[in-house]
Design goal:
Elements: H1 11-14, H2 39-51, E1 55-59, H3 61-65, H4 69-79, E2 83-85, E3 100-103, H5 110-118, E4 121-125, H6 131-134, E5 146-151, H7 154-157, E6 163-166, H8 169-177, H9 185-206, H10 216-226, E7 232-235, H11 240-247, E8 256-258, H12 267-278, E9 284-289, H13 290-293, H14 299-305, E10 311-316, H15 321-329, H16 363-369, E11 374-377, H17 380-392, E12 397-402, H18 427-440
Parallel strand pairs: 1-2, 1-4, 2-3, 4-5, 5-6, 7-8, 7-9, 9-10, 10-12, 11-12
Amino acid sequence: DTGAVTLCLPQDVQAEALDVPSGFLEKRMWRIERRLPDAAALTRALDLIAAAKRPLIVAGGGVIYSGASVALAMWAQASGIPVAETQAGKGSLPYEHPSAVGALGVSGTAAANALARTADLVIGIGTRWSDFTTMSKSAFAHPDVRFVNVNVAEFDAHKHSGVALIGDARATIVALAEVGHRVDDTYRAEATRLARAWDAEVERLYTIGHAPLPAQSEVIGAVNAAAAPEDVVVCAAGSLPGDLHKLWRTRDPKGYHVEYGFSTMGYEIAGGLGVRMAAPERDVFVLVGDGSYLMLAQELVTAVQENVKLIVVIVDNHGFASIGALSRAVGSAGFGTHYRYRTAAGLGLDDGGEHGDVLPIDLAANAESLGVPAIRVRTIPELREALASAKAGSACAAIVVETDRYEAVPSYGSWWDVAVGEISEDAEVRAARTRYESGQGTQRRYLRPPA
């Protein structure tokens, strides 16, 4: 297993000279082991796949890290098994692949979530099965659902009482595909129909024509259209990651970079800087909300200093819209989620009541003060024009677009375990608690012993 490494040296040690053998510093080729799973476990997994009537593949980040996208595309094409994607696994298949059904989970598509509910076998490849992916263990509702888990980490491979295939994603996919299993034509046609219906829904949301301010989905559509297949979108926090997971049409395994640690605010510009430095041949579109932008905007200075081109699209809804929506969902009223002056009554609530005046925050002027040319747009045609100009340029550019915070992308048959107060005098909270308890009734433990 791999992960981040921190090297800490005391200041006095850093100043000391050290004799190092020259061979220690010579370049060398490190060969990554592509481990195959245990043969008996592989046989059990193949038996489950052969017996399954409604299998579903869930592609996680391990598919990307293993370079397994081509192998997965070939297996899915040959077998007809539909493929859903986690946040980390988005881009495992290009969106137009005939087996691709899009995002799964809390921020999932109607197609993927519908297939998950009725899947009798779920094949997780390189996923940790986070609560966002499993909808807090409510996504897979078939009474006899079984799991096959391909993972280099033994801990994750055994989750949900699955058959643990501890090994490299690409090598294991090739081994699973050699059997040549194909799903029933009726099931393949059902998955195709759901995927096409979802693609039509994406197009509707891209072109919804909301006024007077555009919807966030329209902004995503404009950026997606402006990006070349090899370009990268970078995002991290707020409502944008969930909307991108649903709506972004990925065409390259490395074209989607979302740091989804439950809204790591401020990562976007710094992360985009790193992506562009690692892949200077790709344009990088940083999608960032106003709340997250204000957390760590100063890395624009580094981008200017190092002459690293970023196209930064700042989605301005004048506050913390995501937290406001989550607050409303649990029966509360979004306390302090608008950028407005405090009044004698307080900061105001996200309930349509009285608020103080809007704070005079000028995000375009802020970006310009950090050395980045910025433009404000109010319509989608203006946004498209600004994106084309930024794409054609060679330097950093910032585009600020206002959106309607209340015109949200729907959820599609998803649920997330966000607890609601058990006792409250507020009728809205009590109603939310009733909905919450209803959702809890859909949760599963998946304790059935593996085959």
